Backbone:
């Protein structure tokens, strides 16, 4: 589906194309960083920590959580739609609720009766108290235990108070987005939600796999924003989509190998729709090891999100000063 | 107070297996540490798991095909039942290293076959393992080597062979990736036929000479018309490979390390230990059994007690082996598969070819809840023989709260916890009045009280470590 004489959306992305036409989707071209290692894992680390040269220990989103809530008043400021806790959210002393299934989120739920449960949980709280710890790993476990207890109490309200006439599509990404909508609509003060969907590593069978994946993602995003709109809560959410690198320009017969420069999308009512950044040249002479040379540093995109959307100083968060594409409405 | 021999044996069995009951630990201490290591290194001397017993209860698991999310049930059964735990632990090690999943392979049978190979050859040379993996249909499909043609090279397998399975980032160039991939062109599998009503056809390795690029290659400073096996030989001749495999062994069996993607930019935590393991690998032509013997007998291993966060498989299998009542195939076997998954380790379906991030990354608020809830619930089931055994041992400690708490910690580990946490447990034991073993059926009797205590103990931070 053509947007202009150069770029277009995959036919499975109709819902996103519609949002683009409504002016709510920013497309960022050629995003990446210099000397891309073409390894998923190292590259993902770099995107998560903003540290291309050394081993980062802190996620960029964790730094945002700390700025938003330095006293850790709210353990559900950030929610990682699990089972895993994404590295972007990992930082010393930063609480994150990692929720896989919000309906069963609770500690020692098998203990009955209620009186016994509360007796054991109050002891659990004491044993997990900050005073008793030996080193960073123990401290991390201690904090995680305490945050889990507190987060479970807070999050219990979310599914109970949620009702919606939107029927989410039955896909993993649809389920996660529904969970996010439930927590967001409960008004618990959560500011950052993280989820993933895969696998886009289409070395083979790219045509059919890509179709399926983008259909799932696009439908999920449509359901999510429709849900928020129904509840009048769509104007305070911006959704950011990225992958750790693009694919190689020349296909390998059935798919494409790891590349460098890629594309990011930012979606929401507060997004100034359109295309940003320079589309990297696809001429063979301009490629680097057969890959698109990134034209925009990924930390530029982060900078806009941190400064213009979250209203925070981006320098510390992204580790430097970068050009700022203006894709957020002022 | 804690018996050092028991403590060390418990450590060995947690690492080279899935933990052991106090009875088993005492039996093994009587035999000796080194003799136990030898026993672990000789799985063939043990009575094998009767897999047909499992299949009698779950006949559909003969070639589980696409049994959504539960195709690893047979492996779970093996891990619960095995008398040769190191053999299964090595399967888990290799599965983490050569992470291959049904999310793409869509076919548990083939991944089971890969596991069977690890079970059979896990203590052979690493060259044997690499050659087997390079010809394994699940791996070929997982990393698209069936799409790697003489006329159009697909780098997926070639890259991961170098990055994740042998050398690690920083020890080769993009040209090496290309040349390596060329050498594996034509290494493919027989037709991948669609499902039919009786299941699927097995996949088989196939070499197609007409699709192999037999031309000259320049790889890691060597020039020649290399094929895949020669490439593997060159890889294994590089010290970086021994160091990389050694670091994998160290991380899995000795102590938690940085995650694999960080290895190119961070040195090992214990460089001497990793170097010693690497040297052992080189000296023995990469014999993995020898490397394991070296590790398990070394001081750095013995000193690394509780230096690892248990992975979800260790949590679930370890707890099941501890509480017992696993003689017969349980209808809950399928639930246990999902329990492991919910704690963050969907076996036979890793998140990517990198495998799972381990160590502290196993723990987040959600997975900590799953671990705690699973373990506490199982340990609260009085009727299980392992729990009865625990009760009897604690009972013999008498009624003094301190003695009862210490007995619980002994039999649940032995577990050493900070004085403050121990005092909390003692306070908890005291808070409901004196412990009374005379009236066992009473809801506030000794057994009920100890049950509450051991549920608290498995919820402790210290219990999350292996």
Residues:
């Amino acid at each position: 589906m053509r947007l202009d004489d150069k770029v277009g959306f995959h036919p499975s992305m109709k819902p996103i194309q519609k949002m683009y036409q409504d002016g709510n989707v920013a497309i960022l071209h050629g995003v990446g960083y210099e000397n891309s290692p073409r390894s998923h894992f190292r590259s993902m680390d770099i995107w998560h920590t903003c540290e291309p040269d050394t081993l980062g220990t802190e996620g960029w989103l964790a730094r945002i959580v700390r700025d938003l809530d330095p006293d850790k008043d709210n353990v559900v400021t950030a929610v990682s739609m699990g089972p895993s806790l994404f590295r972007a959210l990992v930082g010393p002393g930063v609480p994150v609720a990692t929720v896989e299934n919000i309906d069963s989120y609770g500690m020692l739920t098998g203990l009955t009766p209620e009186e016994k449960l509360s007796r054991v949980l109050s002891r659990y709280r004491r044993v997990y108290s900050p005073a008793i710890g030996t080193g960073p790993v123990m401290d991390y476990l201690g904090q995680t235990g305490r945050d889990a207890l507190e987060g479970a109490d807070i999050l219990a309200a979310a599914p109970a108070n949620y009702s919606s006439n939107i029927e989410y599509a039955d896909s993993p990404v649809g389920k996660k987005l529904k969970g996010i909508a439930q927590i967001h609509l409960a008004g618990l003060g959560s500011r950052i939600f993280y989820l993933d969907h895969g696998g886009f590593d289409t070395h083979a069978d790219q045509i059919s796999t890509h179709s399926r994946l983008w259909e799932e993602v696009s439908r999920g995003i449509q359901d999510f924003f429709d849900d928020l709109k129904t509840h009048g809560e769509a104007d305070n959410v911006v959704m950011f989509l990225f992958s750790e690198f693009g694919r190689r320009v020349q296909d390998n017969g059935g798919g494409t190998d790891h590349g460098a420069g890629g594309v990011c999308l930012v979606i929401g009512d507060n997004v100034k729709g359109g295309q940003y950044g320079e589309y990297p040249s696809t001429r063979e002479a301009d490629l680097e090891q057969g890959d698109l040379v990134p034209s925009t540093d990924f930390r530029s995109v982060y900078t806009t999100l941190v400064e213009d959307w979250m209203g925070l100083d981006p320098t510390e968060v992204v580790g430097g000063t970068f050009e700022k594409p203006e894709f957020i409405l002022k | 107070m804690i018996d050092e021999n028991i403590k060390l044996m418990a450590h060995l069995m947690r690492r080279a297996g899935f933990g052991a009951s106090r009875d088993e630990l005492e039996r093994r201490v009587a035999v000796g540490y080194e003799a136990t290591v030898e026993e672990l290194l000789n799985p063939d001397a043990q009575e094998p798991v009767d897999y047909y017993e499992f299949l009698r209860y779950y006949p559909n698991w003969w070639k589980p095909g696409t049994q959504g999310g539960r195709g690893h049930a047979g492996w779970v059964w093996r891990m619960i039942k095995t008398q040769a735990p190191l053999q299964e632990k090595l399967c888990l090690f290799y599965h983490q290293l050569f992470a291959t999943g049904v999310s793409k392979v869509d076919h548990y049978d083939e991944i089971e076959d890969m596991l069977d190979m690890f079970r059979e050859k896990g203590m052979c040379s690493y060259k044997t393992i690499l050659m087997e993996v390079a010809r394994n249909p699940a791996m070929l499909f997982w990393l698209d080597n069936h799409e790697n043609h003489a006329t159009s090279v697909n780098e997926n397998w070639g890259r991961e062979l170098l990055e994740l399975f042998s050398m690690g980032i920083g020890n080769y160039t993009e040209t090496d990736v290309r040349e390596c991939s060329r050498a594996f062109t034509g290494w493919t599998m027989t037709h991948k036929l669609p499902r039919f009503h009786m299941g699927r056809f097995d996949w088989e390795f196939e070499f197609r000479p007409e699709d192999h690029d037999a031309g000259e290659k320049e790889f890691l400073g060597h020039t020649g018309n290399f094929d895949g096996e020669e490439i593997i030989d060159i890889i294994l001749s590089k010290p970086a490979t021994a160091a990389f495999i050694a670091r994998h062994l160290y991380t899995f069996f000795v102590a938690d390390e940085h995650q694999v993607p960080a290895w190119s930019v961070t040195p090992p935590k214990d460089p001497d230990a990793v170097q010693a393991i690497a040297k052992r690998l080189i000296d023995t032509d990469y014999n993995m059994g020898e490397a394991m013997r070296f590790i398990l007998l070394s001081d750095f291993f013995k000193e690394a007690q509780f230096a690892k966060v248990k992975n979800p498989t260790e949590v679930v299998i370890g707890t099941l082996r501890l509480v017992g009542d696993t003689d017969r195939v349980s209808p809950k076997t399928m639930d246990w598969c999902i329990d492991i998954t919910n704690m963050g380790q969907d076996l036979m379906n890793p998140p990517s070819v990198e495998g799972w991030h381990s160590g502290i990354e196993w723990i987040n608020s959600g997975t900590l809840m799953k671990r705690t809830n699973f373990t506490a619930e199982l340990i609260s089931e009085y009727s299980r023989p392992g729990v009865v055994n625990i009760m009897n041992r604690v009972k013999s400690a008498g009624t003094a709260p301190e003695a009862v708490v210490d007995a619980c910690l002994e039999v649940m580990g032995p577990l050493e916890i900070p004085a403050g946490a121990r005092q909390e447990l003692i306070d908890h034991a005291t808070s409901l009045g004196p412990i009374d073993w005379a009236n066992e059926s009473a809801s506030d009797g000794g057994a009920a009280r100890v049950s509450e205590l051991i549920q608290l103990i498995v919820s402790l931070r210290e219990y999350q470590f292996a």
